[in-house]
TrEMBL record:
GO cellular component: external side of plasma membrane
Domain Type I cytokine receptor cytokine-binding: from-to ranges: 13-106
Pfam families listed in its UniProt record: IL6Ra-bind
Compartments in which it is found: Membrane
Keywords: Glycoprotein, Membrane, Receptor, Signal, Transmembrane, Transmembrane helix
Gene Ontology terms, MF aspect: cytokine receptor activity
Top-level lineage group: Eukaryota
Family matches, as PANTHER family: CYTOKINE RECEPTOR, INTERLEUKIN 5 RECEPTOR SUBUNIT ALPHA
InterPro entries according to UniProt: FN3_sf, Ig-like_fold, Short_hematopoietin_rcpt_2_CS, TypeI_recpt_CBD
Primary site of residence: membrane
Stated name of the protein: CSF2R factor
Gene3D superfamilies: Immunoglobulins
Membrane topology: Single-pass type I membrane protein
């Protein structure tokens, strides 16, 4: 395909993370070859069946350029999500950037909750229990690995 636009004008270092179960934060940097007045716009599609949506809450830099987006109420599907960032400038055409991402791979898991410790001084042992972290995707039978650091004071 022919990519219209100035070389080096597409965004760089695009990355997204999902946190707090349903929030997603995507960020990028302006292309090194982009004119100073370039403004970027992010569109995404959670699955092929859903329509493409533009970011509703942009993160802006000091020059009011869109440099990221915060998404609320994101649900992780089984398909890859599609991200598309285009740009506009008075002076020239801006190249677009696009990427498919498996959302479950970018989810930052919450810590375990309801941690309880019950120690028995007579038996000289402790029972530590917790609930597994909430995750936003539906694969509930996934294996979690836990690491316990015990510091004696």
């Amino acid at each position: 395909p022919v990519f219209a636009g100035m070389n080096g004008s597409a965004i760089e270092n695009f990355s997204c993370v999902i946190y707090n179960i349903f929030l997603m934060n995507c960020t990028w940097q302006a292309g090194r070859g982009a004119p100073a007045d370039t403004q970027y716009f992010l569109y995404w599609q959670n699955s092929i069946n859903e329509e493409e949506m533009e970011c509703e809450l942009y993160i802006k830099d000091e020059n009011c350029r869109n440099m990221g987006c915060i998404f609320q109420n994101v649900s992780i599907g089984i398909e890859k999500a599609y991200f598309f960032v285009n740009g506009s400038s008075k002076d020239s055409l801006i190249q677009f950037y696009d990427e498919y991402i498996d959302l479950y791979k970018i989810e930052k898991l919450m810590p375990p909750s309801n941690i309880t410790v019950n120690c028995d001084e007579i038996k000289n042992d402790c029972i530590i229990q917790w609930q597994r972290p909430q995750i936003s995707h539906s694969n509930k039978d996934i294996c979690f690995k836990y690491e316990i650091n015990i510091k004696y004071k």
